[in-house]
Every structure is written in C-alpha cells, then in structure tokens.
Design a protein that fits this description.
Blueprint: H1 2-9, E1 25-28, E2 34-38, E3 44-48, E4 53-57, H2 63-74, E5 77-81, H3 96-107, E6 112-119, E7 127-130, H4 139-151, E8 164-166, H5 179-185, E9 189-196, H6 219-238
Parallel strand pairs: 2-5, 2-6, 6-9, 7-8
Antiparallel strand pairs: 1-5, 3-4, 7-9
The structure holds zinc ion.
Length: about 240
C-alpha cells in the first residue's frame, strides 16, 4: 500500500510552478458523495496581513498522495494541489483552489468534504480533527468520524500517534477561509484532518522543502490511517440523506 502512496504522490512536484499548459490542480471524479481535498499538496504562499506580504509555506508532504489513495480505494472525488502555487487555497478568501472546489460542489452531488493537511512529527497527536469548533458538520457526523477513527486505533485518549486531538487550538479550522469553513458556508458538511508526519510520509522525497532526512516511525500507522479514512468515506456515503 505504501508503494502505491509513493506512486500517487509522484504526480506532485513540490517546487515547480505549472509549466506551459500543465494543470496546477489535480482532480479525479468519484462515484460517491464525498470529496477529499489536499490544498497544501505542494509548496504554496500565505498572505500575512500584519506584514502586508506573502511568504512561502512548505508543502504538507504526501497529503495529495494520501487523498488520492483514499479516493482510489473508496470512490470519493479528490482535488489536490499538484504544483507550487503563489496562493494558499486554505487561507485566501479567493483562490483558484476554492473556485475549483466550488465548481465541483455545484456540479456533483457531494455532501461531505474531508480536507487533509500535515502536522509536524513533534506534535503530540496522530490526527487533529478540526470542525470549526463543532460547526462545520453535524454533531452526528463528528461522532461518526471519531467512532470510525477509534475502530482503527485512533482515540481521544490515545498516546502520541494514536491520539486524536479534537478542535486543537491551532488546528480547529475556525478561520472561515479554510476549505472546511468555506465548504460549510456552501452548505456542505466538512472536516479537517491534520495528520502527523509519521502517519503520512513513508520517506521524505529529495525535492521536499524540509531538507533533513525523515522516515515514518510508524509505517503501519500510515496504512491504518488510509483504512480509517476509506472506511469513513464508505460510511458517510451509505448514510441516508436526512
Ligand atoms: Zn496544510
């Protein structure tokens, strides 16, 4: 499974803007009402209003590959950033990423958006679940997400990589311009998942922005996360529309 993850991540060039007619964003159509999103799949640029300027931000390594792998296994739609961008699709109020997302939400019967991001290896959680402080999805959906993660060993009282932090101060998706907040405003239930580096990077690529070598200390944890997210898509897809 990790080989396939590396293969799917191969579509992404972290440091290269789109050349010629290349697409900046990737999209694969799905067959179920869930869209998986990875807006930080490659290097991007965030605007800091207090400094009046944009600064480059490192890619969330392997989140595009992870999104694509879960989509491949579950039939979800998937949208990802595949080239270096001068925008931040998860921070800018207006961006090409959000335009693309909006179009997809209008054209397809999508009821849920799962937005994937990356957290540093030193974080004391495996997964941070952000639901804009319990407002971006129904309480039942949030409970279902936590139940599904728990089936694969990720719980709120777990240790380190097994721990799920819910609406962590830094990862709550409470900024309305996050993909999660944006989708929720469009009436689509959404949640943000920040995966610890150990749960998504089998081995750091040579073109990564971070230069120190890195290898996951828990490759089985990456597989468990793929299984958990795949199961979550399947469960959400099977729910009756209320
Ligand atoms: Zn991110």
């Amino acid at each position: 499974m990790l080989g396939r993850l590396v293969e799917l991540e191969g579509d992404v060039l972290y440091q290269e803007p789109p050349a010629g007619t290349e697409a900046e964003l990737g999209y694969t159509e799905g067959a179920v009402p869930v869209l998986i999103s990875a807006p930080h799949g490659a290097k991007h640029a965030r605007f800091y209003p207090e400094q009046g300027q944009r600064k480059p931000k490192d890619e969330d390594e392997f989140t595009a590959g992870l999104a694509r792998l879960v989509a491949e296994r579950s039939g979800a739609h998937v949208l990802w950033l595949r080239r270096k961008s001068d925008e931040d699709g998860n921070h800018d109020a207006d961006s090409r990423y959000k335009d693309a997302l909006k179009k997809l939400l209008q054209c397809h019967a999508i009821r849920y958006v799962l937005d994937l991001h990356g957290a540093r290896a030193s974080r004391d959680f495996g997964i941070a679940l952000g639901t804009s402080n319990n407002t971006s999805c129904a309480p039942e959906t949030q409970a279902l997400i936590l139940e599904t993660l728990a089936r694969y060993g990720f719980t709120e009282d777990g240790d380190q990589l097994q721990r799920v932090a819910v609406n962590h101060a830094s990862f709550s998706a409470s900024n309305p311009n996050t993909v999660t907040g944006y989708a929720a405003r469009l009436g689509i239930q959404a949640a943000q998942f920040e995966a610890n580096a150990h749960l998504r990077i089998p081995r750091r690529r040579e073109d990564a922005s971070a230069t120190e070598p890195f290898e996951s200390a828990d490759p089985q944890g990456i597989e468990r996360l793929v299984h958990a997210l795949t199961r979550l898509v399947q469960t959400l897809s099977a729910l009756e529309i209320l």
